[in-house]
Structure formats: structure tokens, C-alpha cells
Amino acid sequence: MSSKLFSPFTLRGLTLPNRIVVSPMCQYSSQDGFVNDWHLVHLGSRAAIAERVQAFADAAQRALKAGFKVVEVHAAHGYLLHEFLSPLSNHRTDQYGGALENRARFLLEVVAAVRKVWPADLPLFVRVSATDWTEGGLTPDEAEHVLRTEQADLVLLARELLRDPYWPLHAADELKENVAWPPQYVRAASSKTPLRENVDYSDLD
Ligand SMILES: Cc1cc2nc3c(=O)[nH]c(=O)nc-3n(C[C@H](O)[C@H](O)[C@H](O)COP(=O)(O)O)c2cc1C
Prior knowledge:
Layout: E1 9-11, E2 14-16, E3 20-22, H1 46-65, E4 71-75, H2 80-85, H3 100-103, H4 105-117, E5 124-128, H5 140-148, E6 155-157, H6 159-163, H7 167-174
Helix pairs in contact: 1-4
Bound molecules: flavin mononucleotide (FMN).
Flavin mononucleotide binds near residues 23, 77, 157 and 158.
């Protein structure tokens, strides 16, 4: 194997087989076009903040019980933690507003609380909003370049994977990588294609 895109990546006790990640894409909608409790997140009081911190930790615990190996704290896209981070939305005058270190306080409390319940050997991601400077879809060469120049460890794709769910297989073809295919698909693959191993669910409750 020579491409970085299809090389394994280890973070704490988890090793991913390649550097391609499906970016989170919610598939829910408002009911009858109305906003509901989900959307009505707002800047709360101190007590409400402590409650939210605990809620993040509880959610991480549930994710662990359900067998997830990575959790991601969402601090991007205008959601609650992002509203605290951004000076555009955070006009608080208490210790959660003002300088960046104050605006980041809520997020750091959440990360600390989640870390307490999330095993030390498993990765914890934090999603922050950043600018996407690239026009159009990502090509395998661009993804490879980002990894080789160490601008990132992983490449997350969202809309491109909606347009082309087999992007990783096409990318492997373009980068001349002999990656494993699901056994159900292998009759359509070239003769030396290895079979993808099944996910091991045996350590779940
Ligand atoms: C249908 C759809 C749903 C999305 N839902 C989420 C979400 O629930 N959480 C999230 O963090 N990002 C969500 N995103 C944003 C993507 O994860 C990603 O950051 C964004 O689409 C930019 O990446 P892309 O250029 O590869 O599409 C969603 C994107 C799409 C297209």
C-alpha cells in the first residue's frame, strides 16, 4: 500500500483502516415546518449550563454502552457550543462571555466531563466550524495531498458521499489501491480483491 488515504490511522486505542470518514449528516426534519425543542437551544443560565454539561456526559455514556468507539462533541454549525464560542452570538458578560478563553469555557467543561466517562483508550473528537476554501467536490488526489502534507489526519466527506456512495472504492481504483470489498459485492470486483471483514459485535452487552 502506498497511498496515505488508504493507510491506517491510530488514535488512542482505535485504529481506522483508512483516512476516509463519512461526515455527520442529520437526516431528521422539523415537524410541519415548525421549529421545536431541538431548535430552541439558547444561551442559558449557569445552572442550565451545568445541566447541559452533564447531559453531554450522559450521552457519551449511552454511546459507550451502545458500542460506539468514537464520540464527537459538536461545537460547530451554530449549535449551542458554537453559539458560546462565537463572539457574534455570545454577548454574555459573565465568565462564559468576552475573551476566547471565556467563550470556550463551556466547551472545555463539556470535553472534560465527557472525557471522565469516555475510556482513555478511545478517541474523542470535537467538531468546530472552519472555512472550506475548496470549490466543488474533493478529488482522491486532493485528499491524498491533504494527508501527505500533514494538514490533516483524516478526510471527512459529506455531500460527495451522497452523490457517490462508492467514492472510497473509486478513489482506491484511481490511487491503484487493492482495498477490501464487502463479500456481497466481490463478484463485481477484480480477481485479487480482498474481502472486507465483518464488524465484531461480540464485546457488546
Ligand atoms: C444532508 C446533510 C446533513 C448534514 N447534517 C449534519 C449534522 O447532523 N451534523 C453535522 O455536524 N454536520 C452535518 N452536515 C454537514 C456535513 O457533515 C459537512 O460538514 C458539510 O456538508 C461540508 O462537507 P462536504 O463539502 O463534504 O459536504 C450535513 C450535511 C448534509 C449534506
